[in-house]
Each structure stands twice: as C-alpha cells, then as structure tokens.
Write a structure and sequence with these properties.
9 helices, 233 residues, Alpha-Beta Plaits, 2 domains, disordered C terminus
C-alpha cells in the first residue's frame, strides 16, 4: 500500500472513529469470506458496519481521533463493528455473540460504548439485555410509576372530601331534610336577615309601625254592620 493510500485510509478511519459513539471489536481469525459476509449482513440490519482493519493504521487513526481506549484492543487480526447513530448496540452485541457461539471461531475482544470501555464479559452482558425498545419502555415505566403514585396521593384527600359531602347529602335526603345550595341571591338574603335582626333589637319601633298600619286600615266589621242596618230600614 502506497503512502498516500495509507494516509487516505487513516483519515477515513479517524473520521469514522470521531463520528461513532459505540463500537465493538472482534478477532475474526479463521472465518471464511462467506462467514464474514453473513456477519456483515446481520450487523447491517441493526445499524452497524463490520470492517476488517489493519492494526498499525487503526492505531494512527485512533490517536488522531482521540480514541485511545481502542488502542488496547488492537492485537491480532481485527474487525470493528461501527454502530451508527441510529443503530442498536445491544442487537449488534447479540449478533456478534451469537456468531461466536455458532462458529466457535469469532472471539469478542471488547469495545467502546458511548465513551466507556468494554471488556469481553461486558459485551456478553450487553448481548443479554432486552432490545432497546423494551428497555425504553421499562425506563419509562420506572419514571411514570412514582409520578402516578404521587398523583394518587394528591387526589386522595379531594376524593375523600367529595365522598363525605355525598354521604351527608344522602343522609339529609333520607331524613326528609333539604339541602340548601348557595345561589346568586345570597346577598339579598343577607340583607333581609339583617333587617329582621334590627327589628328584633328595637321592638318599640316595630309596635309603632304596626299601630300606624292598623289606624290607617278600614274597619271591615263596622262597614258590614252599617250595610245590614240599611237593609233592615
């Protein structure tokens, strides 16, 4: 490989390393071309590309991209699964782990998951996790459950108060009583009540008013007697 070609490969690898947050590294030694093609097809379905790399060039690319965590994994024949931004690292890890079990050849070395270095055992544990969609649902459930409980606690006193009011209304109805509901005439009723209270506090004024009212009224009994006398005459 000419120098210019090596520089181009290093530049491309460095760019891919900068853009990739998660990647998994495997030793592909012993796999046939057909098996490599099958692995690539599996990983492509989960948003990853499987690339065989040259360690010396990949080291230079890792140093240029600031991906020093990758350096320790570059020993022996190396293939890297670059997980795209919309890829599923869990599904990619599962596909590699399944290939390792099926072929008895592919060996997991580790990887980098969003900046965290993974050992081979970490990759195997990652492969055992539920799919991303299921994990998101579980996390959402963990977040929503306490909120739902809190909402229930906040609503409980209100429900209890409404229940007590309904029970009291039902009790009054059974006893034949009536339940007064405040209306827009509450202000007028207050004025009448105040007038009645003042009248009770000043009975003399009330009596004088009643007397004046009596003197001014016509005497129906006398009128009836006068009419009778006129008829007899």
């Amino acid at each position: 490989m000419h120098r210019t070609e090596k520089e181009r490969v290093v530049g491309e690898l460095a760019e891919r390393l900068r853009e990739t947050e998660s990647l998994l590294v495997a030793d592909y030694r012993g796999l046939t071309n057909a098996q490599l093609a099958e692995v690539r097809t599996r990983l492509r379905e989960h948003g990853a590309t499987f690339t065989v790399v040259k360690n010396s060039l990949t080291r230079r690319a890792a140093e240029a991209a600031g991906a020093e965590q990758l350096l320790a994994l570059l020993e022996g024949p190396t293939a890297i699964a670059f997980v795209q931004s919309d890829g599923d690292p869990i599904a990619v890890a599962k596909a590699l782990a399944d290939t390792a079990k099926e072929t008895k050849i592919l060996a997991l070395r580790g990887g980098v998951l969003e900046g965290k270095q993974l050992e081979p055992a970490d990759v195997e544990q990652l492969a055992k996790l539920p799919p991303v969609d299921v994990l998101k649902g579980q996390v959402l459930g963990v977040i929503v459950a306490p909120l739902t409980q809190l909402l229930g606690l906040l609503q409980a006193p209100l429900r209890d108060l409404v229940g007590l009011v309904d029970a009291r209304i039902a009790q009054l109805e059974e006893q034949g009583g009536s339940v007064e509901v405040p209306s827009a005439d509450a202000g007028a009723e207050a004025v009448v009540e105040e007038a009645v209270a003042q009248k009770a506090d000043n009975p003399s004024a009330s009596a004088d008013g009643e007397a004046e009212s009596t003197d001014g009224e016509p005497n129906e009994e006398n009128d009836e007697q006068t009419d009778t006398a006129g008829e007899e005459e």
